[in-house]
Amino acid sequence: MFRVDLEHRNKKAHDGQRKRERDVDKIVIVGAGYAGMMAATRLQRGSRDFTMINRHEYHYLTTLLHEAAGGRGAPSHYSVPIRHILDKPGSKLVVDEVVKIDKEKRVVVCKSAEHEYDILIFALGWIPEYFGIDGLKEHSLVLRSLNSASHIRDHIEDQFRQYLDDNNEEHLRIVIGGAGLTGIELIGELVDWVPQLCVRYGIDRSLVDIQNIEAMPTILPQVPENLREVAMQTLTEKGAQLRTNTKIVRVEKDVVVVGDGEEVHAGTIVWTGGVRANPLLGEAGFTVDRRGRAKVNAYLQSVDDERVFIGGDSAWFEGEDGKPAPPTAQMATQMGKQIGENVLALGSGRAMKAFEPDNQGTLASLGREVGVGNVKGIPVKGVVAGLAKEATKVKYLWELGGIRLASEKTGQLVHR
Ligand code: NAD
After folding, report:
1. What is the pLDDT at residue 416?
2. How would you write 128-160 as a 3-class SS string?
3. Ligand 1 centre from 380 Cα, in Å?
């Protein structure tokens, strides 16, 4: 009797496990950014098959795009072929562009094909926020992808060459709109790169005008006030103009118009004034906030559909303080790991874990060697901040692809 009971219980448990596995049979990850890659590496380690859909066959380091735009290293230094990381037979990569999520039919619609899912991991990141400013989208560059970073670098160099043709100094004015972390890190790179360009093209450095235009009274609201002053001083001494309390209200071809009507003529205009989530979730009917981020529960599942996990800049996750988690790489990385673990837990009938964000601090590089910010609440500046930023890079690469990737990439990035 006892033996029959035990066999019956074992069979039930076995059937339950099979059913759970069927429920999470088709796992689709969209987006190979920080969140998507971290979720994928967790699933691969847990021997779960999945399909990753991404526009390119490489993953790139978004936090270092300013380096690529500022000519520090070749674009290949900032990217990793996805297949080098996701190298198991069950880890499938589809290079395609996602155009729609059909949440009723549970289908990801891409340009070339459709993919059904039991579980969707949505990690398509961000798009620029233009705030409806007239002409801004049409007439500015953005630091959004590896291609756009290369485009900014090539465009600036091309402007230097055009100056040699027509002596129009407007080619040598570079305007960066917005003094958040993206804008300030880009300015930091440019002030270190421009002197090299001047030598290469035989142009007097004093003719080049690198301007940052910020609407608020201060730059870098994320760092303490005294460190903002350090950043202002460092960048100003290196030859940048940082204009605060100056709002961009309109942009035309090669012209930025600010609040008081002043026209700033510039050969290069880059917009770093804000981001919003990829619009596909809002378009699919998920509950989104004013920045297009879709609301998730404690396990990072959509509040509208538990089969959809959302990570990174597209997720509207509220921490204990009631504030949404910021759209940063460290949050995306942490969310991706938790999503991977939770999907593995679902498949094996274990309990999922609630996401607990761990703020490690914020670091802004101010060019090739120095920076400002805080590490776990401790303020850092100068070379120490620059080194701390390098350390976060190595840590991420190590997590992504082990010691092999960390040493290969840091070798490329250090010997530049
Ligand atoms: P942001 O929203 O943080 O900063 C944009 C800045 O542009 C703001 O200071 C805003 O006042 C200004 N702005 C907006 N409209 C303007 C206008 N009309 N005229 C002039 N200025 C205007 O955007 P970001 O810097 O792209 O950062 C986006 C997210 O990515 C943030 O969460 C940031 O923390 C994160 N990030 C982190 C790092 C890092 O950790 N090193 C680097 C880059 C970005």
Report:
1. 43
2. ECCCCCECHHHHCEECCCHHHHHHHHHHHHHHH
3. 20
